[in-house]
Amino acid sequence: MWVAGVLLAFILPVIYIAIKEWRSRKASEKDGGPPRKKEPLNWSALARVSVILFVLILPSVWLSDISYSFYRKEDAALKVAFKLSGSRVADCEEADLIKKEGERYRRELKDTRQVKMSMSKLGRCPRERNPVTVELYMDGKKLLDKSYAPTGLKKDMASYVFEEFLIEPGTHRVEAKLYRSGAGKPADFSLDGTVGSKPGEIRVVRFDEKEGALLIE
Amino acid sequence: MGEKREFSRAGFAERAWLAIEGPVNGIVSSEYNPFYYLGAISIFFLWIILVTGVYLFLFYDISARGAYLSVQSLTVTQWYLGGVMRSFHRYASDGLIITMLLHAFRCFITGRYRHWRWLAWVSGAAMAWVIWIGGIFGYWMVWDERGKLIATLSARMLESIPIFGLPLSLNFARAGNLTDQLFYIVLFIHFSTAFFLFILIMLHITRITKAVINPPRVVAYGMILALLALSFMKPAISGSPADLKRLSEAVPFDWLFMFIFPFLNWVSGRALWGFIVAATLIFAVVPWLGRARRKPPAKVTLENCTGCELCMEDCPYQAITMRKRTDGMPYPLEAVVVDKRCASCGLCVGACDYKAINLPDLPEESVKDDIRRLVAELKDKGEGRKVMVFACAKGPWIDGIKDGKGGLNGYDWARVVALPCIGMLQPSMLSMALDKDIDGVFIASCAHGDCHFRRGNDWLSGRLAGFRPPVVKKSLDRSRIGLQYLSAVEGDAFIKELTAFREGLKARS
Ligand code: HEM
Ligand code: SF4
Ligand code: SF4
After folding, report:
1. What residue ranges do the domains of chain A occupy?
2. How far apart are the CA of B459 and the centre of ligand 1, in A?
3. How deeply is B380 buried, as exposed, middle or buried, from its count of CB atoms within 10 A (0-12, 13-18, 19+)?
4. Ligand having the closest approach to the CA of B302
5. Range of weakest confidence among A14-28, B48-62, B375-389
């Protein structure tokens, strides 16, 4: 298992260093130190040291156990959380390009026996995606209007949407609009529903890939 | 030659601290005083954390669904071993924070962080980071309600770093998003802190000769007993399992590790990072803040050096290296001082039998001149037993050190020679002081186990006992040599011990 391997890789140097240290201590005991007999354990000192150390670390019993609540008891939360790819900025049929290039390659290979695959031509097909924009209204009030940039160095990967709002418990009307086709285009998906939330409860607005729709969970 | 060395008194804060920890020597001897071993104790806590951690890992189910249950069942069904291991793991970590903070505080308050110690200080700050990170991820792994809150808050912190692309929080938004992979990563981070710590510890003590990395056996056993007591007093347990559909309610919080998170209630993650980074930087540059004159480093007089390596052995900060002879003398080696690492403590002077290494502001000859002068002064005093005192300047702040003249108000039968560290006391200085007209030599060392230059008083007692070269001559009457270990706040004890020593001296025949 790789975890075991990795852990071993960590433990081995530690063991190596420990053994080295131990051996060098053995060696340094020889040079110059007082001749060391193995002294019997000093029991009364042990008892006293234990008590002092106990007192020293005793505070951790409380310090590790003080109750803390980050949220208020009456808080509820609405999260917007999902991952979605915006549409491609430029229409570029990559598959088509590959097919054409392949054909050219085969043809020229037959004719000249030395061709280069023109990768740059393929590379020119822009893969950049549009940001994903989410608008969220609760009881008619705007909570969120934000664009989420595509990830990846070439901006060609999905956008990740995550927001958390603390809300009053109760029933709320939630409207959401989702844009993934770039500026000026109409919303690709929308949602209009009600959520009821009890204190402490978390509701999530998300985009479900399978259903292809915004849902409240 | 520049000015003669002047000594300064320990500051008020340092004395206050010494007055607090000193009495512990009355309960356990200084040989076992935990305050003198805080670094070594911290390392021993780390060993305990490592061993118990490996045991816990054997039973840990690295998955979103299994993690909580595996920890819980280990705690409950195997309370006598797994549960104890878990409590050890928890309390050793908490103990580590306490001893680490005390260790850092102690280094600060006793002024042991500047100049040649900067590397230890800065690497110490890095260790603190790693330890806190390790603890935070450790609590996360339990995946109970507390783990969930810590995960949520630390994810929020991580996401607020601009270069951190993916929102981790997505993982906790729904149970369906939570992957086993995340638990692998968390385990990996948690465990790798051990690795980084060991590297950092190596760095922490690279410039420290024979660093004390193991506490005495008694202290180590004491730590185990103390942890055992805590484990049974209040075993470490989990809260209720993490429920991603609900906001975390009140959870028991480990403030030693999590103190930073509550600030998120008031400031944004980014602001909090700014604060943490600023605080770390300020902490890390403390060794360079304020003015602190550095004493001139030791100088080798090459004509005298035989390359015997004794000074290198005794230098507490690895400031002396040996290199191939450069002056054509028939010795293979010669000593070289690395100025930047030199603490100007004089331990090398005490180690050199050939007058080959010196502190420019306190050369061996000037110490000996002082001894001659003070012995002569005492001789003129006529009747009564006379005592020469060698005093560590880090010890009690007595008259002879204050004015640098060597007199001791109200005790005209004694004269004081002050040394920056008692380890500078070269055996020939002792012989010189124990002149036939002087009845005894009283050595006032700083507290045993708490030498400001780490090992000075050890080396001295080794030389006195005859096993550490250069040894004190056998012919010196040991009954006329008194040795007391006294901290900067034990001025009264100094007078008491000195007087008692004098009264115990036989008259010279
Ligand atoms: C768990 C963390 C730490 C461990 C295990 C540790 C361990 C040690 C050890 C074994 C020594 C050598 C003691 C000796 O032989 O004289 C030492 C020295 C030192 N440590 Fe740490 N330390 C830790 C954290 C820190 C921290 C957080 C600081 C401060 C920022 C710090 C500052 C120092 C300094 C300045 C010295 C040099 C003391 C001297 O030169 O006398 N350490 N530490
Ligand atoms: S102890 Fe003296 S003689 Fe020996 S190496 Fe050091 S300086 Fe040279
Ligand atoms: S004065 Fe101290 S730190 Fe400097 S070389 Fe000598 S023993 Fe080392």
Report:
1. 2-64, 76-89+129-216, 94-123
2. 21
3. exposed
4. 2
5. A14-28
